[in-house]
Structures are given as C-alpha cells and as structure tokens.
Write a structure and sequence with these properties.
alpha/beta; three-stranded parallel sheet; 3 helices
Length: 91
C-alpha cells in the first residue's frame, strides 16, 4: 500500500480551500424605493464586507431591482469588494 505524503504547501492549500463562505440574504432588507433606513443598512452592509477578512468568500443575495440605480450601485460596490452577488426574482 502506497501512502502519499502531503507537502506543507499542499496542506496549506487544502486549508485555504476550506474557508467557509458567508451567505447574506439581503432580499428583504432593501425595498424597491430607498429610504433613509435602507441607505443606512446598505452602508452598514458595505462597511461590514470591507472589514471582513475574506471579501471573496462573501456571497450576497439581492432582490431584483429592475432599473433602479441604487440596486445597481449596491451590486457594483459589493462586486468591487470581491463578493459574489446573485439576484433573486420575486414572483
């Protein structure tokens, strides 16, 4: 029986691959029309993602904004921070 030895670099690589993804369901937070409260919530979300050590391991689910500029800005800001952003279509 042959047992493969794992190099220290290989062990480190396998640990990096197991970094958990943080999933944030933002579908019920930002309504179709922005208010002062949702702007504050959006700022808090962006600040939290900026402070998270692994922005590329954050997945945010947004609700469909249609042509709303605020929704596109939020999506673009999250993607610029390295987040995965998906959109949920309400029925």
């Amino acid at each position: 029986m042959h047992t493969a030895m794992t190099s220290p670099a290989g062990a480190l690589h396998s640990q990096i691959l197991r970094v958990p993804t943080v999933l944030i369901d933002w579908t019920h937070v930002v309504p179709a029309h922005q208010t002062a409260d949702t702007q504050t919530n959006t700022a808090l979300l962006l600040n939290w993602v900026r402070s998270h050590p692994g922005g590329s391991h954050v997945h945010v689910v947004l609700r469909r904004f249609g042509l709303a500029a605020e929704g596109r800005q939020l999506r673009n800001s999250l993607q610029a921070l390295g987040c995965t952003v998906t959109t949920r279509f309400d029925r």
